Recover the amino acids of this structure.
């Protein structure tokens, strides 16, 4: 992938931010995701010659996140960069300001991983580009949930919509951000244990009937062709067409079927689970998001289930320097 990282910095410390993301987009389990305009995680880092890696963390849900540099996504990703470029003589002094809520399904660890890898790379003068940097960021995901999947970290790094076209070696295809569309996210307040993503991955079926594979392939084809042609109706049908992952995870999300039906009846192009959940999302036309969000929230309220609702855009930019 051609790199969009133009600037090289020679500074003693940097401050970068990386966005929340929606992974899978329905049928694209582990192979596609999109960057949202907000919220974002911020990582401030300097490289020291002594003292060991140090991590401080504050912000949304930070009490649930480890400061242990061997477990913290941003620090693990940053250290992976140091090791890859042969500078493991240096130590990280890192501060993470969480904006993306952990365990929500909005790529919280992906945002931290992307910001951690990018910030360290920047301090070193950008020796890594494109997929080489992505590979380091994926190590942050591995630390967070045991699996180095790239469908959150890749759009958090590169922005737009990113398709993971190969695992070994890791390769991506980036699409420009979708324009004139809104993305409504509903996050129901449900009991979430430790290791949410790990559990949401463990409940997936080990094998599936051939007919489901046919339908899933068809849905992913619609999503990809829709993206390539700018056909949002086709894209939305693809997003809504997941018959494998969504079917297994829907039971973890209260009123999932009702939310989906209502969203599509109201005119949303597509609806599915965001990442490993419990957030769900609807892709809809501009200026429809607020009303649709209120509509969906009321379904949960009627059952006494609290939720949060937010309306986003697909961000062109992924990780970036902030002042
Ligand atoms: N592709 C991942 C999953 C995203 O669905 O488990 C969540 O991290």
């Amino acid at each position: 992938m051609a790199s969009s990282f133009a600037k090289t910095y020679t500074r003693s410390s940097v401050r970068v931010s990386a966005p929340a993301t929606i992974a899978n987009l329905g049928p694209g389990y582990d192979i596609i995701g999109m960057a949202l305009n907000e919220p974002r995680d911020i990582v401030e880092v300097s490289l020291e010659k002594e003292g060991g890696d140090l991590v401080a963390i504050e912000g949304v849900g930070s009490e649930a996140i480890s400061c242990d540099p061997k477990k913290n996504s941003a620090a693990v990703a940053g250290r992976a960069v140091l090791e890859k470029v042969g500078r493991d003589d240096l130590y990280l002094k890192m501060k993470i300001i969480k904006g993306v809520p952990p365990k929500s399904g909005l790529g919280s660890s992906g945002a931290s991983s992307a910001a951690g890898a990018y910030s360290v790379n920047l301090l070193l003068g950008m020796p890594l580009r494109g997929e080489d940097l992505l590979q380091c960021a994926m190590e942050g995901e591995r630390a967070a949930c045991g699996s180095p999947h790239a469908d959150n970290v890749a759009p958090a790094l590169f922005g737009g919509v990113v398709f993971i076209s190969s695992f070994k070696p890791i390769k991506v295809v980036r699409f420009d951000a979708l324009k004139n569309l809104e993305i409504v996210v509903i996050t129901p307040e449900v009991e979430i244990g430790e290791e949410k993503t790990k559990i949401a991955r463990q409940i997936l079926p080990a094998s599936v009937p051939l007919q489901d594979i046919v339908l899933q392939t068809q849905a992913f084809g619609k999503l990809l062709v829709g993206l390539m042609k700018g056909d949002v109706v086709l894209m939305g049908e693809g997003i809504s067409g997941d018959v494998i992952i969504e079917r297994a995870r829907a039971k973890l999300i209260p009123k999932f079927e009702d939310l989906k039906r209502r969203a599509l009846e109201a005119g949303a192009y597509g609806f599915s689970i965001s990442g490993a959940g419990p957030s769900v999302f609807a892709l809809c036309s501009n200026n429809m998001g607020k009303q649709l969000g209120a509509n969906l929230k009321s379904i949960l309220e009627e059952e006494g289930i609290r939720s949060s609702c937010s309306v986003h855009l697909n961000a062109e930019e992924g990780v970036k320097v902030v002042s």
Notes: The first helix runs from residue 73 to 84. The chain is about 35% helix and 25% strand. The chain has two domains: 2-177, 181-312.
